[in-house]
Design a protein that fits this description.
Structural class: alpha/beta
Largest sheet: 6 strands, mixed
Helix content: 40-55%
Order of helices and strands: HHHHHHEHHEHHEEEEHH
Shape: elongated
CATH class of the largest domain: Alpha Beta
CATH topology of the largest domain: Endonuclease, Chain A
Strand order of the largest sheet: 3-2-1-4-5-6
Number of helices: 12
CATH architecture of the largest domain: 2-Layer Sandwich
Radius of gyration: 21 Å
Length: about 290
């Protein structure tokens, strides 16, 4: 039997695993075997294993043939799978626009996922969510990080952050549901003027119909998400499994299975129920803005 372990040089990426899991789900729903799928694209069963596990970049012709073989007729879904494959190939070759950010690491893969997502739920303990940050706030964060000393690198980081925010507007805007701890509103990132402008911008962003913001006040005390921030990335298809991104100081963790993703969703919902509704949250934001 041939080994199904990735050879040296093969890399399993978040995007490829995402695409592979959807192809696997489609194959199972169609009742097809790996050998049948392999025959449809004139390949070996080993190639189908590698594709479904995200070990190799995928060709558009193979994806189209497999979608047709599995009976997938929804053109939008096929287009989204092709976009995932394109983003993965660009990610592997470092050609995505998000690669302009120095030392992007896990952030690059997160942005690539965000580009094809329909909704993001994010919980933040001490920072304003990236999609809501002003350039001055993002710049202050990059400077205080201490990792980047080159001003050009810092400006590229800010540029990437600002470009991400294009997803908040347009024909098919990203749905964003954010819950932040009150500390994120009071931490004076960049000083009083920068923070005041940031809170003013936040009050503008929450007016968008695709944005929902709640604030967990200090008085709540203990809560389910007290251990750290995370973001849950969702996709348009109801069958698609959410992907969770957890960014720590030293590493990035991806949660990609249905059971663990559901656990994060449950924790997010429980924390949201303890938080101020958007109307009351905006009143708090405005009060803090005036106090600064």
């Amino acid at each position: 039997m041939r080994s199904t372990q990735p050879r040296q040089g093969q890399v399993s990426t978040v995007l490829a695993r995402r695409l592979g899991s959807e192809l696997l789900r489609l194959r199972d729903s169609a009742g097809k075997t790996q050998q049948q799928a392999a025959a449809a694209i004139s390949a070996t069963g080993t190639k189908i294993v590698k594709m479904e596990r995200g070990w190799v970049p995928m060709r558009d012709p193979d994806i189209r043939v497999l979608c047709e073989f599995y009976g997938l007729e929804d053109r939008k879904t096929v287009s989204r799978l092709l976009e995932l494959a394109k983003l993965d190939r660009e990610r592997r070759k470092a050609k995505g626009w998000w690669q302009h950010s120095p030392n992007a690491g896990g952030l690059a893969e997160y942005i690539a996922m965000e580009d094809v997502a329909s909704r993001v739920r994010t919980w933040q303990l001490s920072l304003i969510p990236g999609l809501f940050q002003t350039a001055e706030y993002a710049r202050s964060l990059a400077v205080s990080d201490g990792v980047w000393e080159d001003p050009d690198d810092i400006e590229r980081i800010v540029g990437v952050r600002m470009r991400r925010q294009e997803r908040l507007r347009g024909e098919h805007p990203l749905q964003v549901y954010a819950v932040v701890w009150e500390a994120a509103l009071r931490q004076l990132i960049g000083g009083p003027e920068v923070m005041r402008a940031q809170l003013e911008h936040l009050l503008e962003v929450v007016q968008l119909p695709n944005v929902r913001l709640q604030v967990l006040p200090f008085r709540t005390g203990g809560h389910p998400c007290i251990t750290g921030p995370f973001s849950i990335v969702s996709f348009a298809e109801t069958e698609a499994v959410d992907v969770v991104h957890v960014d720590t100081i030293a590493s990035t963790v991806w949660v990609e299975n249905e059971t663990e993703s559901a656990t994060y969703s449950s924790f997010f919902d429980r924390t949201a129920r303890l938080s101020l509704a958007q109307h009351d949250a905006t009143l708090l934001i405005d009060r803090i803005r005036q106090e600064i």
